[in-house]
Every structure is written in structure tokens, then in C-alpha cells.
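Q: For a teaching session next week I want to show students how multiple molecules come together into a single three-dimensional assembly. I've collected the sequence lines for a complex. Could you give me the predicted C-alpha cells for the whole thing so I can convert them for display?
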Amino acid sequence: MSAQAYTLERSVALSAVTRASSLTSRVFASLVSKSDPSSASVTKSDASPVTVGDYAAQAVVNIVLGAYFPDDPIVGEEDAAHLRKPESETLKRQVVQLVNEALALEEKEVVAQKKSWGDGPVSDEQVLAALDRGNHQGGNKGRMWALDPIDGTKGFLRGGQYAVCLGFLVDGEVQVGVMGCPNLPLDPKDGLPKEGDAASNSRSDLGVAFIAVRGQGASQRSLSSSGKEQSISMRQLTSSGLEDASFCESVEAGHSSHGTNKRIAELLGITKESVRMDSQAKYASVSRGDGDIYLRLPVGDGSYQEKIWDHASGSLLVHEAGGIVSDCRGKPLEFGQGRTLKLNRGVIAAPKGVHAEVIRAVGKALEEEGRGHL
Ligand SMILES: Nc1ncnc2c1ncn2[C@@H]1O[C@H](COP(=O)(O)OS(=O)(=O)O)[C@@H](OP(=O)(O)O)[C@H]1O
Ligand SMILES: [Mg+2]
Ligand SMILES: [Mg+2]
Ligand SMILES: [Mg+2]
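A: Of course. Below is the structure for the complete assembly, covering every listed component.
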């Protein structure tokens, strides 16, 4: 593939994610931080939260994608069903207003062949239709986008880590991944902001866009300025250097078994505390060496199917930063199976030099728990 592959997809994705990230930051500052988390969110049928920010960010990204690639299917986490109910009128109004504000922002990205989404504000119906464009069922043929408008909604509500995640796939393989992490510092040495602390959340060094194109490497740049992109890579570890390594894992034990992770650390000789954060910011963190190994082990009976939008952009970022991403058995993630990774269980991302060893330790730990069949 030529070095210039998917240039337009890359810049449109970056533009869409940058707009959506600025929207979610403003939603946090103006709405979420000023109310209690339960009133800032609606609980979905799977008991997970969704906010005005998730809806508005998905609509913005889908409208931008629609202007450039009107025929591309989109697999997005949210849809407009709840917003179409009469009792959601106020929420719908907020969403439409936020979408129009984000679309009116001055273009920071230089997108070749500039396209427009129409004259004047977009209507309620356009916003709802854009949200519903995310209803595609996925598959392994042709072009497709996978979108998580806010990944780590619980982190978002707490003022912690969350990410706007957009992947572009061809024939079930991720080719472009762009992720906006509004609460990550550009320089990891500056440390993560303290959750729920207003001064911390308004730090001017926060907000990073991560970008990866298959075969072209991974990079980061500030979300707030059109600063230069810096290339990023994982720390390359070998089995003899593992005592210096650290895990990056979910905040919620319900999403990845913390107890099993502890045993795996022991088996690998890792003594450092795990870094815990919500969202695909975990993939971003290991991609630039803030942590080294991302573990997301199946919980319970292992029946949960990971969603493609929770892993598309992040997995390419790690791949392009020098890592291997697989499920807990070492099998590559298969993104062409529909809306979920139904052929995979759990996710492991690690530097190339130690991935096989991590998979062996994961297998042994699951075996010891009587869950070797997972
Ligand atoms: N049971 C179970 N197992 C694994 N994963 C689940 C489960 N339930 C939900 N989810 C998905 O987890 C997404 C958030 O993942 P995180 O890694 O951020 O989890 S955590 O909040 O840090 O625990 C979250 O994404 P968002 O809804 O976009 O926040 C869900 O898609
Ligand atoms: Mg969700
Ligand atoms: Mg998610
Ligand atoms: Mg989400």
C-alpha cells in the first residue's frame, strides 16, 4: 500500500473527532460538572449511562462523515430512539443546539476537498437521522466506520478519562484510527488530572488527539491547537525487563477481572501498581509508553461480547506503535463479524517482545481459576 493511503479518511476523521471532543469538553464544563451524575445521564437498557454529550458527539461525527463519505456505513454505539420520545424534547433540544455549535466551530484541520453540511443550522430531523446512521450491523465487506462518541461514559461523568473513538475499516480490517482524549495531558510526565477537581480539569495542557494509519505509524497532537504531530511508540520490553513494566486496566472490575490481573502480574514478575483509567485512553497510554500492557480479561462466564467501537481505533494505535493486540487466547481481533467481536474473548495489548509471554501467563491464571475454557 502506498504511503499516502487514506489521506482523506485520516483528515476527515481527525476533523470530526476534534469537533466532537471540543463539544464533550464543553458539555462537561457547562452541564455535567454542575449537576449530580444521575441527573446528567440516562440509563440504557443494559444499565450503562448515556449523556447529552454521547448523543451530540455521535451526531456531529456522523454529519461530518456524511458530508465526505455519504455512502459509507457507520457502526455507532448510540441511536436516536430515546430522543424521538415525546418526553425527551428538552434533551433533544440540547443535543441539536450542541451539534450546531460544534459544526459552526472554525475548521482547525485542513481537509482537502472541503465539503459542507448545508447552509445554516442543521434541523432536529437531520440530527436524529445522523444519529441513526450509526445503526449499521457491521460485516467484513467494503468500507465502514466504527464510532464510540464517548467511550468511558462513566469516566466522563466523574471528570476522569474518556475518549471519542473513530475507526475506519475496509473488509473488516481497521485502516485508520483516531481518538480524542480531552482529559489526557500532552506530556505524560505532567501526570493525570485529579478526577472531579475543577482546577485539574481545566488544565491547559490537557487534550490529545491520537492518530494511526495502517502501515504509516502512530502519532499524537494537541486537541486544542493545530500543533505539530509527534510520532509515538510503545516501550519495547523483553522478558528480562518485565519487573519495570506496568499494566493499564479498567477502573471497573466488572469490565476486566482485577483479581486475575494481579495473578498475571505475579506470574510475569511485575511489581508496579496498575494504572487504572476508563476508556480507550488505556490503548493511547500504552501506545506512548505511559503504561505497557493493557489487560481486559473476560469476567464471569465470559459471555460478554466486546463491541467493535470499544476497540477499533485503539487496537490500530497499539499495532502502529509497535505492539500486538489479541484476545486473551492470542487470537487476532476480528472486526468483520458484526457489531461485536463475537469470535474473541477479552483483549490483551502488549509490546511485540513480550506479547506471547503475557498470553501464556493469562492462560495459566485462567486455568488456575477453572476458567481455562475461556
Ligand atoms: N460487562 C462488560 N464487560 C466489558 N466491557 C463492558 C461491559 N459492559 C459495558 N462494557 C463496555 O465497557 C466500556 C467502557 O470500558 P472501560 O474500559 O472504560 O471500562 S471502565 O469504565 O474503565 O471499567 C463501555 O463503553 P462506553 O459505554 O462507551 O463507556 C462499554 O461498552
Ligand atoms: Mg455506552
Ligand atoms: Mg465504549
Ligand atoms: Mg460510548
